[in-house]
Amino acid sequence: MNPGSDFRLFREDSCDRCGICFQRCPVLELAEDEAKRQIDILIRGEKDASLVLRRCVTCNICEFACPRDANPYGLVLERHNETGKAEGLPYITKFIFPNEPENMWTTTRVLMGSDELSLLRSWEENLEKPRKEVLLTGFYNNLVPYIAQTSLLGELKPAIVGSDSMFGMGEDAYRIGFLEEAERLGRLAVEKFSAMGVEKMYCFMVVEASMFTDVLPKKFGIDVGFEVELLDTWLLQRLKSGEIAVKDKLDLKVTVHDNCCGRYMDGILQDTTREIMERIGCEVVEMRHCREDALCCGWAGTVPTLFGSTSSNPFHTLLNLLQSLYLRMQEAEETGADVLVVPCPGCYAFLSLIKVLTGSRVDVYLPLELVQTAAGETPVHSNQERAWDILAATTNLVLKWFFSPRRFVPRPVDIDKPLPQAGRGDAARIRMFGRLYHGALVQNPVSRKLISLAVKSLITLYRAWLAREERKLLGMKAP
Hints:
Strand order of the largest sheet: 3-2-4-5
Structural class: alpha/beta
Mean pLDDT: 91
Shape: globular
Distance between the termini: 50 Å
Oligomer: single chain
């Protein structure tokens, strides 16, 4: 498939309209007849009548649920591709495009310390050095670079490479239906690592790993040419061999968030995370939606708000994000677990955000951080502080929306260009919001309780509105 071509990821000839894809969807959970009707609506391209396009968080369960390998997930992406080409994207989407000065990496860096900024620079510089083995940071990993400050990475630590400009090897572009850009970025990334002489790549994030092992070769016909392994697999092997010694069993009750891309690579991450937890002394309890049926963390809850009648309203996007994140956090709380274990740094960052906004009692940890603790190291674990940093950057973006064009057409991303610097005004406002959110006015028990009540109330009202809109779309009357 050539860049710029019309994409047909959906195999319509294979689809028998059974509706299993949308029956199995943990967000929609449709009855059989309605699921069949919705797949027909989507195939016919009746976007305004499609409940799927209004609610789909691109968790990709439908792709794996389909008994005929028709790839209904690909059909969702095709419809988003059509809308995005015709209408562009809302201004708030600049948050995920690394070539826009408003992107979350550039803006969050404003509040990072020199130690983290130094790490990020060194990883970018390593991209210019020939290496046979590398550890790829992952673009959401670069929101929390402090997690690499551990001796456990051993010989992999000097081999860390990566840049936010690589845009997750095209994963976020793929997830929002910008399929031509996803293919182009994937090809450029493969060429980059091939030119470096990479033979083995370890990945902090399953997002990038699954792009190389599943999406790029199977959806776009791109031959990767090097071996890919998850850092979590590497960690488990060292726990098994004793190279990482467990000094103190943790004796924690944990529940595992299985992220969307963890369904790729034959689902190896799901078992790997649980075995790591058991080896360091944790009891694993499962959420209602887990493993292959797990809910998205909520970050991709923004996707359906980028297209359609409300797509230029950032508050719709933010409320859908909050209610999606809280849905996952509520399932974690219901298990009675002490800790929510999150193998994806992106999910980790945003589930930490909903934790601080709702005052959840459940702590959020990466597997690596818990392994550090069991091995006698104290992890930096600044996830809650970083959550407030991300909120400061988001507040600035929403503020700018009032004075900016409502939509934009994304430009192609240059993976060899450094991130644009935040403008002087942006940086000043982000620092101001950062001081506010980290200061005594917000960080006191009364304010935190009021914030929690306000956020939960907004989520409750928003969910009621979503339910009414869904009943209207399905032609149902309120009970």
